[in-house]
Design goal:
The protein is mainly α and 118 residues long. Helix content is 57%, strand content 0%. Helix 1 (7-14) crosses helix 2. The longest helix is centred in the C-terminal third of the chain and has 22 residues, at 96-117.
């Protein structure tokens, strides 16, 4: 709902049920490249948005049947007032270059906070 679009509306736009959208969101079902492109188009974003900060080397991903690191921190963050406000404001920024600059700013602030903690 952060983009003002329900899972049901996204499902309708994609020609799938909202349950399928929930499965995509939770990672229960894989999303093919074509479907990811469709989702990006419906959400008016670049498909590359979904890959920002993704691991780039195979050494960063678990092998075999090992589980990926938990994404519970995302749910925890989105459960806070600040997290929800930040996400709502961020997704309302249409210019991808501006969004990238916002991310760079937050990363720089976090790095300076970490450096100050040492």
């Amino acid at each position: 709902m952060l983009l003002g679009m329900s899972q049901e509306k996204l499902g309708e736009a994609l020609g799938v049920t909202f349950q399928q959208v929930q499965k995509y969101e939770k990672g229960a079902n894989r999303i093919g490249a074509g479907r990811l492109q469709d989702i990006a188009k419906v959400l008016d974003m670049s498909p590359s948005f979904f890959f920002e900060d993704a691991p780039t080397s195979s050494s960063e991903t678990p092998g075999g049947f090992s589980e990926r690191p938990s994404s519970a921190y995302v749910v925890d963050f989105l459960s806070t007032v600040e997290g929800l406000q930040l996400n709502k404001a961020f997704v309302s920024i249409r210019d991808p270059k501006v969004r990238r600059r916002v991310v760079d700013l937050v990363v720089a602030i976090a790095a300076s906070e970490e450096a100050g903690a040492d």
